[in-house]
Design a protein that fits this description.
alpha/beta, Rossmann fold, Nucleotidyltransferase, domain 5, seven-stranded mixed β-sheet, 26 helices, 40% helix, elongated
Length: 574
């Protein structure tokens, strides 16, 4: 909801950010500056020269104006009353080929020149050895191009270090790992390609160490500069991106310390493939156009590489246009994905599902040690044709080692309590599923016949059957093997139609949205069905268990009892 014009805007909010982008302005709020410090920073920064461009042009000519706005906001912000720094952190999201690594190296040198604290530490961190080496090469080459600067700074190539001779304060260029911080609190940290850290376990722990400098008397600044992720944002990148958007949109607290500068399209336009495929809209999010990149070269790269396949296009637009990979973005998506986010039933829980539905069916997508185990319930709301769905998922801890590409995402879901990590799927997860099914049966909400749909081909199908039989369910009369593959075409289509009409509603769990956006479909003749094989490494287990339960609900079942002769629901749940 847009802020009322009469309201006092929270610090760093920029509700007209999209209008600014359309006008060719930096999407940033007005920041009060120490004008003397800003002028000093700009004078030094502008004299630095590009070492890898013919003629070595100075940044006064070769740098886009947008980055000078970033520079002064980060290095020269000042509260007009207290005279204290306002911007302690800055997150800049800018497309690939915007010279961000070179500009970041120049900013690091400028900050080192401006800093008067003796014997301090500054860090410029890249997510990989290649990126950190590139940052250092640019920084040291800029200094060596200028004899005056060579007298101000001492360069130690073998440890990638630049020291200001006058103060002894040192800028170190490092590759990200859990041993970056060795007890010293950095005065300033620049992190290039933050989105890559979303794929690294324990990244959050390292960031907590870096941010520890922010509460000391000397303080510690952090600059993040990155492109969008070529995968679904996860881990620390998901957290920082969400925080930055909330601050920009005025939905955070009144006094944030992070300044967001985000070059991206509004969410609805990111989902509008017609809009972002229109090349005349590309310059809107390319602030360094005509400096480090030309539109003609970008178009040629898209036509020759980005448009080669659906997967290639998805990755290309995430890097060059900052299109976030998410629900509704890929062309081979399940048709229900377009309507998933709009079909949330507020406050739907397991307990409310039991109280609001006249009949319930269950679905299980069994999982092994390196997979997810998904359990879903679909209930028909009493007196209506509305289906309500709630799910729960588990994973063995070993999956974090075997599936490193999604480990950060799984850790996020565990923190959100959408996923339960266990040491023994059989003793913990399958036992809980069986107990939950017993509760539903005791309430008389299961159908008389087939109650629980199971992917019979799943890796843990036998464990599911064993657990349910131990709880008193009969495999022949209570369980239904739900065929996968093209036979899912009908129920997948039914659920998609009901999602569009909002007669299928769900609990709005993030892990389920993740499963839906991971889902790719396989086309066989007129049949189009979700396929684990087509979805690759992306997990879709939650959707598959939901379709298993929905298949049984599509048979128009009636509950085995009306509950009046059974135990009170509260007693059963207790």
């Amino acid at each position: 909801m847009p802020l009322d014009a009469t309201e006092t805007l929270p610090r760093f909010s920029c509700p007209d950010w999209w209008e600014k982008i359309q006008r060719g302005e930096t999407p940033i709020s007005e920041i009060p500056l120490n004008e003397e410090r800003a002028a000093k920073a700009l004078t030094f920064f502008n004299r630095l020269r590009l070492p890898d461009v013919q003629g070595n042009p100075p940044l006064s000519e070769a740098c886009g104006e947008w980055f000078r706005d970033v520079l002064v906001a980060f290095l020269a912000s000042e509260d007009p009353e207290t005279k204290e720094r306002l911007v302690w952190e800055l997150l800049c999201l800018v497309p690939k080929k915007s010279s961000k690594s070179t500009y970041s190296a120049a900013l690091g040198i400028t900050a080192l020149y401006m800093e008067e604290t003796p014997n301090g530490q500054m860090l410029l961190i890249g997510p990989s050895q290649n990126i950190s080496a590139r940052c250092f090469d640019q920084a040291q080459a800029m200094i060596r191009l200028d004899p005056d600067l060579d007298a101000i700074f001492h360069i130690t190539d073998n440890v990638k270090s630049i020291k200001r001779r006058k103060t002894g304060t040192e800028l170190q260029v490092k590759t990200f790992d859990t041993g970056i911080i060795t007890g010293e609190i950095p005065l300033l940290t620049i992190i290039d390609e933050l989105h890559e850290l979303g794929k690294k376990p324990k990244a959050q722990k390292v960031m907590q160490q870096i941010r520890g400098g922010g509460i000391t008397m000397t303080g510690g600044q952090v600059l993040f500069i990155t492109t969008q992720s070529d995968e679904r944002p996860a881990g620390i990148w998901r957290a920082e991106l969400d925080k930055a958007r909330k601050i920009r949109d005025g939905r955070s607290g009144p006094n944030p310390i992070m300044l967001p500068v985000l070059y991206e399209f509004p969410v609805q336009l990111q989902k509008d493939e017609t809009f972002w495929r229109d090349q005349k809209n590309w310059p809107l999010v390319l602030p360094n156009l005509h400096k480090s990149i030309s539109l003609a070269r970008l178009v040629a790269d898209y036509e020759n590489n980005g448009a080669a396949s659906k997967e290639a296009e998805q990755i290309w637009v995430s890097q060059h246009l900052n299109i976030e990979i998410g629900v509704g973005l890929h062309n081979d998506r399940w048709t229900g994905a377009d309507f998933w986010l709009g079909a949330v039933e507020p406050d739907l829980t397991f307990e409310s599902l039991l109280s609001e539905c006249e009949v319930i069916t269950a679905g299980i997508d069994p999982g092994g040690q390196d997979d997810l185990l998904a359990f879903s319930l679909v209930g028909r709301k009493t007196g209506t044709d509305i289906w309500l769905s709630w799910s729960k998922l588990w994973a063995d801890w070993i999956v974090l080692e075997r599936r490193k590409s999604i480990a950060s995402a799984l850790e996020d879901f565990e923190k959100a309590q959408d996923l339960v990590m266990v040491h023994d799927l059989e003793a913990e997860a399958y036992a809980e599923i069986a107990e939950t099914c017993k509760q539903i049966r005791a309430l008389g909400l299961f159908p008389e016949g087939k109650k629980i749909g199971v992917d019979a081909a799943g890796g843990g199908a036998n464990l599911a059957v064993d657990a349910l039989e131990s709880a008193g369910f009969d495999a022949a009369s209570d369980l239904q093997g739900v065929s996968q593959g093209y036979k899912l075409n009908n129920i997948a289509g039914t659920v998609a139609v009901k999602l569009k009409g909002r007669t299928f509603r769900h609990a709005g769990q993030d892990i389920m949205a993740w499963c839906v956006e991971n889902t790719r479909v396989y086309q066989r003749g007129n049949a189009q069905y979700p396929s684990k094989e087509e979805s690759g490494a992306g997990k879709i287990d939650g959707l598959m268990s939901t379709l298993d339960a929905a298949e049984l609900m599509s048979w128009h079942p009636k509950a085995a009892g009306n509950g009046s002769l059974l135990l009170d629901m509260e007693e059963v749940l207790v």
